[in-house]
Predict the structure of Myotubularin related protein 14.
Amino acid sequence: MMAASPFAAGGFTVSGLSVRKSEQIADLIDLFSKTQYRAKEVSPRVEAIEKRCLELFDRDYKYSIISNSSGEVCGHYPRQIVFLEYESTEVDRDRDRFESTVQISKLQDLVSRSKMARCRGRFVCPVILYNGKHICRSATLAGWGELYGRTGYNYIFSGGSDDTCTEPEEVPEDDPAVRNGESQLFDKVRGHDIKLLRYLSVRYICDLMVENKKVKFGLNVTSSEKVDKAQRYADFTLLSVPYPGCEFFKDYKDRDYTAEGLVFNWNQDFVDAPLTIPARFTQNLNIDWTRYQSWDLVEQTQNYLKLLLHIINSDDDSGLLVHCISGWDRTPLFVSLLRLSLWADGAVHANLEPAEILYLTIAYDWFLFGHMLPDRLSKGEEIFFFCFNFLKHIVSEKFSAVRKQRRKNSHFKESDFTVEDLCQLRSRDRGSITSLSSDFSLITEELAGASCPNADPVDLFSGHPQASSGRRAPASSPPMVSWCKQNPLDETLSHPANEAKSSSSSSSNQSDHGVTRSGSSPLAVPTRGCSLPSERQARLEAVREIFLAAYSSTVGLRSSAPSPSGAISGLLEQFARGVGLRGSNAIV
């Protein structure tokens, strides 16, 4: 028997999604937008969120708990940190292949010993299990100032508790006393960090920082693996993939939530981390990495996600660590995109419906790991919204991790859709691709060759063509290649500079308003017929639709300019009504 259509003829609805589930997500976002999570200050509502996350993990996995009941390990990590051991739905032979050899008691000990090594005590934490590999998250390495400053003092004399609302005291690294004790202390704390990484079989470390070291008032306050003087992390494969910090997403909001054409300003003084990727990961993705400084926010995020998916699909059994500075803005962005992308392929959380995977990634990846949504919203830094609205840009099969494998245990089948449903949706998906309205289109621009009768032409490549035909891979590549800050006219491949450029400023990231990309593409699809989306596309679109409905009924969007004809307000109201919610503050 064919399942009910996920899109009703009279408006936006989601098949199998009850009003209760919609309200749960809206309640979660509402709480998240007003509350900063702290492990030592948990309300009954937060306890219910924690319980729900464990229930959702339990649908697919056998797991153990890393105890953090009162924030003794990390004050802004979940109180019950989930360590996924294996998929509970696997047959015995697959279980034998992927079952974890990690002992939870040893892991707990390594976590407690290693927490000082990372900024704000945000240690390496496994969060996704994919084909027996752990995808982990953390903050960057702590610098001298944090280790011997206020945070280090609290660790040593307060039994591990830390005050994460305060900045560490800044101690200059050129002080003689600092230099004399640096090596021994770093050997100890970073040694524990390395043991934890190895115990989790992590080999690849992806660093999203645009700096080599975080600098405040001319002083280095954090470090990173790529600039460890003693090269303690030389046995790991280090990738420097600089990505703009949360401040940059104020520009995204100020441009009416339009990511197309928004290019980061790489010429700021504090930006000194080059793009550095092992050659074996650059040769098979058909991406011209030398042009990364000209990418807009859409293309940059797409290409980085492709890279991460390529890494975790490598032939070895090694895991991946993703981190930025504090690990609570850019890190959850990519962790969430990875989780949702793999889920859309049926590769992880195979038994969860769209509303359930959305709840899990918001609650666990963002809220319980300490993303400061109230603060970010007050500053207009809407990286959280960007994450889920961005799903429309990764629906293509080129982002699939299992292109040649059959999807498993899917709850969201292509047969759930009718041509009439999709054509009706397509007809609503109109407007300028650079307008705020287009950012809320349900059908992505990535749907190659799909169009509907009587509908406007649809951009095929998200507002800008993929320049693969004009790109060429380097004829030969060293084992590690990197791309540094360049003159805009100089696109040659270069090796890392011998000396890192020092910085005396940590001003907020800003877009280079002089370098923009066209918001429209000459590649438009003629209106001839309507084809069904892939299962991947249908699943991601359902998640995005549910998110927009819940977000519009709770937080709303803070438009910098009135939307033409109130179009976006009306569209958000449709989203909210479609899942049984009221969009009372679509634009505020």
Notes: The chain is about 35% helix and 10% strand. The radius of gyration is 23 Å. Residues 176-199 form the longest helix (24 residues).
